[in-house]
TrEMBL record:
Lineage per the UniProt record: Bacteria, Pseudomonadati, Bacteroidota, Flavobacteriia, Flavobacteriales
CC terms in the record's Gene Ontology section: plasma membrane
Highest taxon in the source lineage: Bacteria
Keywords, ordered alphabetically: Membrane, Transmembrane, Transmembrane helix
Transmembrane parts of this sequence: 12-35, 47-68, 129-152, 158-180, 215-237, 243-266, 273-290, 296-314
Name of the protein this chain belongs to: Flippase-like domain-containing protein
Transmembrane in keyword set: yes
Length: 333
């Protein structure tokens, strides 16, 4: 046992080094993106009382946004791991830190599972994948359903192909969501997936339809919360913004930004470009669009990521698994 003590200490030291590197990289990404994009946004706006209230309301909805996301994961996680909701919230914020450095937020799952004991990380990862699948399903379905209405509003000809796609694709996506086990088996036909994940083929089969509906319902609720935030912020910077335009355009913005590969922090530039394209076609000025897009990113991504970074420093997080009881008195902290 004593011979294992140096190995334990070396692993612990390596954990701390890796955690420090992750912290510095994430801070660097945050600061760079904030400084680069803040310079392109004109915040010289005159706000009425209602517009100030809209900004305050958008800020107050930030905790609800991420608490719902944490709860989605927690209700699945508690069936296999006795993890508190508080830990689930911290893990979700930690996932934001890791997603800042990996494309399409794949780091969210990695960051979350590091909050769990090594034996529960595989289950935690699949639970996280399900919550992400539910949110993606929601975004795709609502976005596709709104797409034809957006084309009608901007007086563009609605093709038969687009009409069929907007009606049939949501049905197929919903069928796929409730048959994740089958989808996973089809994906497993890819050589790399089969080699890495073949032993987990039955993982998605353990979820009941009731659980899938519960997670999807929370995803829809969360979707409307961050859509409402975006609407409030656009109204704050553009008082003439039509809520009907918000209804048909914001889902399309989320649809496009979700389907285009990007990094979480670099997503800001992508979302700004897409928002200018979609809302610009509705004759809104560029400055309010950029200001609202930057603000929603600052509230929903940058600020929670800073909280996640603070928790990363405070929590004794094991990036590398430490074996329990490798020496007398040592524990997997």
């Amino acid at each position: 046992m004593c011979a294992s003590y140096p190995k334990y200490k070396a692993t612990l030291s390596l954990n701390n080094v890796i955690k420090g590197i992750i912290f510095l990289l994430a801070v660097g990404f945050l600061i760079r993106h904030i400084s680069e994009n803040a310079q392109s946004v004109n915040f010289e706006f005159q706000f009425s009382g209602f517009q100030v209230l809209a900004i305050v309301a958008a800020i107050l909805l930030v905790p609800a946004n991420w608490l719902i996301e944490s709860w989605k994961w927690h209700i699945l996680l508690k069936k296999t791991d006795q993890t508190s909701f508080k830990t689930a919230v911290g893990a979700t914020l930690n996932g934001l830190v890791f997603s800042s450095m990996l494309p399409n937020r794949v780091g969210e799952t990695l960051g979350r599972t590091l909050y769990l004991s090594p034996k529960n990380r595989t289950n935690g990862a699949f639970h996280s994948l399900l919550t992400s699948a539910a949110q993606l399903t929601t975004t795709l379905i609502i976005g596709l359903l709104a797409l034809p209405f957006y084309f009608v509003v901007i007086d563009q000809e609605l093709s038969l192909g687009l009409s069929i796609l907007s009606l049939s694709a949501p049905v197929l996506i919903l069928i796929g969501y409730f048959n994740l086990k089958t989808v996973f088996k089809l994906v497993s036909n890819w050589k790399w997936v089969r080699k890495k994940l073949s032993k987990h083929n039955e993982a998605f089969g353990r979820y009941s339809n009731l659980q899938l509906i519960h997670v999807l319902s929370l995803s829809i609720f969360r979707y409307f919360i961050f859509s409402l935030q975006f609407t409030l912020l656009i109204f704050a910077f553009e008082s003439g913004f039509s809520f009907f335009h918000a209804f048909v355009s914001i889902p399309v913005i989320y649809l496009l930004t979700t389907t285009i590969p990007s990094f979480s922090l670099a997503e800001l530039g992508l979302r700004e470009s897409v928002a200018v394209l979609i809302l610009g076609a509705l004759n809104y000025s560029i400055a309010p669009i950029l200001a609202s897009t930057f603000s929603i990113w600052l509230l929903n991504i940058a600020a929670p990521t800073f909280f996640g970074l603070a928790l990363l420093l405070i929590r004794k997080l094991n990036v590398l698994p430490l074996r329990q009881n490798v020496f007398s008195g040592a524990t997997n902290r």
